[in-house]
Structure formats: C-alpha cells, structure tokens
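FAQ: What does a ligand-bound record look like?

Like this one, built around copper (II) ion:
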Amino acid sequence: MEIRGFSLASLGLCAGTTILIMAGAAWAAEPQPWQLGLQPPAGSIAEKATSLHNLLLVIISAISIFVLALLVYTCVRFRQTANPNPSKTSHNAVIEVLWTVIPVLILVVIAVPSFRLLYYMDKTKDTEMVIKITGNQWYWNYDYPDEQLTFDSYIIDESELEPGQRRLLEVDYPMVVPAGTRIKLLVTGNDVMHSFFVPSLAVQTYSIIGRVNETWIDVPEGTNTYYGQCNQICGVNHAYMPIVVKALEKDEYKAWLAEAKKEFASVETPVDTMLNKTILASAN
Ligand SMILES: [Cu+2]
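The answer part, i.e. the structure of the complex:
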C-alpha cells in the first residue's frame, strides 16, 4: 500500500508541475515568482529551443515513468513472500540487445532536432545589423558600429526604482533594437568572464576578454522589453548587471538613434574605432 501511495504522490507532483509549466505560456518576457517553465519564446530561435525542450520533456517523462513502473512491478512481483526461490538467471541476450539498441535510438531522436537547432543558431549570414556587446565588472557596454554609437548600461539602484519597475532587472540605458529585425551580436569582454543571457530570446553567449563570440537574435515584431542577466559568476556585483533589450518600431528606433547619437556623442576613442574595425573584419 505504501508503494501505491508513493506512486500516487509522484503522479500528483508530475501533474502539478505540468500545470505550472503550461501556465507559464501566459507570462511576459521576464522572470516570475515561483516560475518553473521557460519564459514565452520570442523569435524563431526561442520558438525552436522551446519546442526542443517540450520534446525532451515528453521523452524524459516517459523514461521516468517507465523506470518507476518497472521498479514498482519488480518490488511487488518478486518480493520474498511471493517469490521465495529467486531465479539464478544472469544473462539474457534479447534483453541486453534491447537495452542497448533502444537507448541509442532515443539518443538519435534527440540528436537530430538538437543539431538542427545548433546549426540554425550558428548561421549569422543574413543579419541586418550588428551590435557589439562588452561585459565589464559590473555593467554592459553596447556599441552600434554602423552608427558610431556606444554607451554603457548600468543597473538602476533599488532606492531609485520608479513604480512598476522591476527590482534588480532595470537599467539606465537599455540595448534598444528595431522590432522585426535579425541582429548579429558580437559579444566580448573587458575583464573577467561574463555571459550575455536573455532567456526569452534564447540567447546565452560568453563574454570573454580577447575573444569575440558571434551569435544572432531575431527580434519579433511589436514593441516589447526583454529582460536578462549576466549568467557567469563574475565577482561581487555579478547579480547587479542586468540586461534590458528594448524593441521599438522601426520609425521609433530611428528617432531613438538620433537622440542617442546626440546624448552619447564622441564617446568612442580612435582606439575603440580601430578595435571595432578589426572585430568586424574578422567576423565577416
Ligand atoms: Cu556576472
């Protein structure tokens, strides 16, 4: 009876988790209290990553239930009172072949969509613009090389938050992008390792000094704000260098660009310009 109680409890737990994960579909592009599932996907990469995650969830749930059922069956069927003289069998060719071949097939089923997604994420050829992102202790720098625009992005202190702003997630100057655009990101670092991570866009790329990691995002249509955080422990203020990607309609983006150019005019030094040219040349 205890065994049955245990499996009922785990079934209840599984059902509860599934409901919570499905409820996650209605959440915004930011983390939520008690969130268990992924943030709603934004853009084709995130959609593909989410459907791969959903496929894996089905496969691992089926495997877990199968193993649990086998355990329960073995405990009940072969308990001492029901089976006083245990079998001395030590080999069974059919079972051994099966438990080798079936896991291999399962791994192949997982590998195909997994590699397809990896190669899809790797293709940065048809991007429409470039943003260079530099991780620093403890802030991000965003550089728009085609626009001669560069600025730093710092967290807004808790004491300065306005009503409706998110604690530990808001910054003074977000990375502004045009909606409905494919953007190449060149991620590099200035000191220790950081990681540029925006869950809803499914982008997570290491920021390493002396290296340029290339990735891309396809920002969906419509104005939206995507929240992220540094995802590589980088020192005492690691938790205080959030990422805000703000998508604007194309005309609004142009207006922002004109304003930003005035606001951050001539921040870039000749050395920076040379570095950018080298990075862009090596990336193309
Ligand atoms: Cu960090």
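Follow-up question: can I read anything off the structure? Yes, for example: The domain at 129-283 is CATH 2.60.40.420 (Immunoglobulin-like).
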